[in-house]
Specification:
The chain is about 45% helix and about 10% strand. It is of the alpha/beta class. Bound molecules: 6-O-phosphono-beta-D-glucopyranose (BG6) and magnesium ion.
Length: about 220
Amino acid sequence: QLKAVIFDLDGVITDTAEYHFIAWKQLAEELGITFDRAFNEQLKGVSRMESLERILALGSQADRYTMAEKEALAHKKNEHYKQLIARMTPDDLLPGILDLLRELKRQNIKIGLASASKNAFTVIERLQIGAYFDTIVDAAKVKNSKPHPEIFLTAAEQLGVHPSTCIGVEDAQAGVAAIKAANMFAIGVGDKEALKEADYIVETTADLTYDAIVRAFYRE
Ligand code: BG6
Ligand code: MG
């Protein structure tokens, strides 16, 4: 029986995945590294430092910087990212998300957030949706990053529900892998090929209706 839906934030609830992409792309270009959207799929859901490491590796620059320099590069990206999210409003919720949150509440399904971002609380605040969440687990609360299941398992534990009664919603390969490793039903939002490990895939959040996700969950 479905007891909870645990959402990823960036790229699922709002399009901050695009802001992360823009901010990383600018930093990469300053370092003389070019990367495209296909490569960006590998950065989604991945922590700030790990993302930087992957970008540096792409440009064969992994050994060029000291730890302190890497911290400074990651900081620079984050300053740019913070500028981009500072202007967000509730209008930046992706299509269908608010209706889904409302309907889940109405149906007494618990709602959790599992975000790898240290900016998660700021984004939730800007969107003014904090009241919908029964628990918020962010990067500060877990040791292992996605694809490790810890963040989704922690959310389920805090909600007091068994993983098998949860749906996880993700736009990232690493995120879908984390949901599956947690033994939850995985819904992918986005590219069919990139998210093929998911149990159910929708192209956009507009297709993420309460009826559709419940039907998908019970079909399994
Ligand atoms: C994830 C994003 O939600 O958070 C990643 O998908 C991002 O792109 C990660 O790198 C960490 O975010 P932040 O805000 O802590 O740099
Ligand atoms: Mg995401």
